[in-house]
Amino acid sequence: SGDVVDRVARMLQGRPALKPVQAVADVDLDIQAGEVVGVVGESGCGKTTLGRMLAGILAPSRGRILYRGHDVSQLSGAARRKYELDIQMIFQDPFSSLNPRMRVLDIIGEAPLAHGLVARHDKESYVCELMRKVGLDPAYRYRYPHQFSGGQRQRIGVARALALKPSIIVCDEAVAALDVSIQAQVLNLFVQLREEFGLTYFFISHNLGVVGHISDRVAIMYLGRVVELAPTDAIFGTARHPYTQALLKELPSLGTGQRQFEPIKGELPSPMDPPAGCPFHPRCPRAMARCSRERPVLRQVAGPAQAPADGRDTRHFSACHLDDEAPPANLL
Ligand code: SF4
Fold first, then answer.
1. Residue ranges of the ABC transporter domain (predicted)?
2. What predicted TM-score, i.e. pTM, was given to this entire model?
3. What is the mean pLDDT of residues 136-152?
4. What is the ipTM metric for this complex?
5. I need a labelling partner for 321 at 20 to 30 A (CA). Which of 72, 87, 194, 332 fits?
6. Domains and CATH numbers, the chain
7. 291 CB under 6 A from ligand 1?
8. Angle, nearest 10°, between helix axes 150-162 and 104-114?
9. What is the dihedral of CA 12, 25, 39, 291, to 10 degrees?
């Protein structure tokens, strides 16, 4: 075995050091209470990394995440625990995120019990109420995850997240593993729960159609950067960025039911070796000479100069040299 170690060491000596991958860079995004912000992009664009940073699972190597005005990296003790309870995540695969050896009663009820959100003698009624809220029959509370369908398992995941009384839920491809008809049911459940509990969602998906169904605003990500950010109706009606326009062409046309499917040409470049200049230029139908040299910055292309103190943020941002006349973005 010493021989093998020597050989591997010799092989590695000649190799260049691995470059760190920047999964997310220069992202400046605010989420208002009660808002649904959708994040769309191809796999590898950094949207999951962003969601995990928001949920406190990953820490940014640079920059800050502010939660109710406080820098999350500075939170400790009770304040940190409150933050971790207040932001819950729902994952893509409801089966692998549920412990197969636990009954639904415990999957949903153990964490709120451990955190003192419910007393032991109230746990069962608490779980039953949550099961009703997400459309599950409480009579099934003694069953195990494998005894439920994919859609029901995702409802268990939703109930488990709600059990901790969060105000923000990060949904990471939360309906991607479900059949289309079940996707619609679970999306409608998210809409209904948002109204009932006043929830804020950070809704991550590769599917612009899914995100458009539920979101107030949409951020389009490409290779770790937000390239367009706007209210949902503006993304679907007056998209500015060529990448967003290309994503829209991949959607089935509404109304007629006919697909005018036009796939985006080329592959997503490796995040380990992103193109110089605009990261989208090798695939962009409108690329100009400068696009391969200069990285475009996010600029405000429509909407009021300032974000409203409360109410909907209708500002529209895009990062493309076609909009170089627009003022640089001030997202605060
Ligand atoms: Fe296309 Fe250039 Fe705009 Fe990038 S900056 S999206 S390459 S036109």
1. 6-248
2. 0.88
3. 96
4. 0.99
5. 332
6. 24-215 (3.40.50.300), 233-332 (no CATH)
7. yes
8. 20
9. -100
